[in-house]
Amino acid sequence: MKRIVSALLMVFSVALFAQQPTRITIDPVAAVNPVKTQHTFVVTVYDENGNPLGGQKVEWILSRGNICVGDIVEHDDKGAIVDGQKVDKISNHYSVTYTNDGPKTLDFGNDNPNDDLNLTVGQTWCTITSPIEGETHVIAFCPGIKDASQHKVYAVKYWIDADIQWPVNAINRVGDPHTFTFKLIKASSRTPLPGYRVRWKLVEGGVPAYLNDSEENKEVEVQTNEEGEAKVTLTQINPDPGQNDIEIELRDPDGKLLAVRKVTKRWISPQMSIVKTGPAEGILNENVSYTITVTNSGEGEARDVKVLDTLPSGLAFESAQPEPAAVRGNKVRWNLGTLASNESKQINLVVKAKKTGKQVNKAQVRTDRGEGPAATAETLIGAPELYIVKTGQALARLGESPAYRITIKNRGSAPARNVIVKDQIPAGFKYRGRDTGKFALKWNVGTLQRNEERSFDYVLQTQQEGDFVNVAQAVSGGKVVHEARFTTKVVNPNITVKKRASGRVIFLNKTVVFTITVKNEGSGDARGVDVVDTLPSQLEYISSEPQGSFRPARGEQLATVRWQFPKLGAGESIDIKVTARGIAQVPRCINTVKVTSEGREVEDQAALRIQGVSAMHLSTYDTDDPVEVGQQTVYVITARNEGTSACTSVELKNTIPEEMEFVKAEGPGEFEFDETTRAVNFAAVAILQPGDKLTFKVVCRAIAEGSAKNTARLKYAEFDKPIIDEEGTSVYK
To answer: Which residues lie below 8 Å from residue 337, measured CB to CB, with a gap of 6+?
Structure first.
């Protein structure tokens, strides 16, 4: 007789009464299924605060009547007790279940996760079926609810010999009408079912739209035709992105509701942008090149895309790639056709500078929806006389050697004398081994004839990150007559890695999640980022996100997980999660991650302890029960380590009942019998490994009639409270 078990049951009962059920719900309330299939109803029981309540009895009743069909197939048999016996099912029309005390997944015994039911606390279930058409009326009754108006709920399942093909969710470009098709066929013969009523209703809250041929139609009813189909066309009032939800009701020819479903239409649109770039400065009568980039960053495709470039009076069209569709005066047009989502197209335009001054060039994009955004580029066309142009590498990586060219031209009407070209290079570079910033490069040009030009090339070595502006100057007669500025942005990637574990201590056979954060804290793209996570032998790889390439351990080589990323932009970071299971106890194990990029390597590690759990189980039985006065019985006590870690200083104290007298004892070591306390004290066992057990025997002689109770108390170092087990023996004369 396990008194401690009885005590626990009493505590559990008190806890249950402390939370009284007050409400019950069932899902679904109404639904339709083809015959020869099955359907599972889920009931939830709540307390007065709206919290789901576990351990509540629910009775399932299938009402019978002229049109009632259906039988119970299976149910949630957890804790179902009838007349003191645990049962699987009482009858095909009546069953009993209890609500869950914790989460539970019902997978119906197959490998398809799509039909799984994820149940929560306070829920229970029942599955029904029917081979013939008709209705199943279900009553779910919770006897624990005292309010008669709240303790039962009703649901109905319509069984029809039909295969319902509901329309699916769809995505359309804005402005394009969409037709939904509902189809109903007889499941047994696969023939259409005409005459069924399908009601389509726009749910409030979507973008303005209507059904079929009138903007007033927010709800229409269509009967299935000879093909078993019922169609409706959804049209937007305005071509705006967004979505519409449509509620679909299926009713039989007499109007009885059979099923309800919702379908969603999402409207997507293109999002056009245009960027025009070109030089800030140009030279009169020279060609100037521009780049026009048109991008559709929206979800929908852009149709009939055109670009119209309006040239100012100071610029004249020379050529373009691709060829324009039309050039009329100062207007140039390209027909780009259709741009898919996230697609870009580029136009390279070459014009000739005809006038000095600021020339503003405007390009605008159009689609079949009308005018889109515009972009402009401004170019200053310099006057004749000395003109200096500097070109080079606008973006360079630290350690690279960007090349530059300075071109000086004389566009004047007379020669320019004593011409000098100076280039003041900012600090942050090296020029032929010398640190820049304290000197200027100088070229003595001398005399430059009209329309004459000269170019000077040089190479620098980058030494620092940042934006560097150098100024090339044309000096004539000791005066600066023109200058050109050029900016080079020097970038440098800087890869860092941090690794952390979800806990510093895990128990044996439990999982831990490591989070690896790889970040580029530099100013330039990091290329060829390679991440390798090395797992210690005490951890078993479970999964990773994103999915890495796992290589199991071989010999002395530890298991690794590897990810490769072609590029990590400046300021970007990647989070990687690795899930592993502890498979061996160890006071400290280290998980190391190494990241390499362009020859640079960084690493980080996370340490944790894997420990087991010690868990003792104590049980007692008597060899003779009942026992006659003067006869002997033996109390056999077994202590087993059911944990994963050793138990130490295991000590048993057994108190014999007053109706007995001590005869002798056996155990793994020595013992003492204390006549005052009537206790047999067994010597402590130093260590008990997982799975091992200790057996103690105490032989007693019955000396008095009555109900005798033997008490065994077990203590061990890893548990600060005694484990008690009691065994009762009836003594008679």
So the answer is: 304, 305
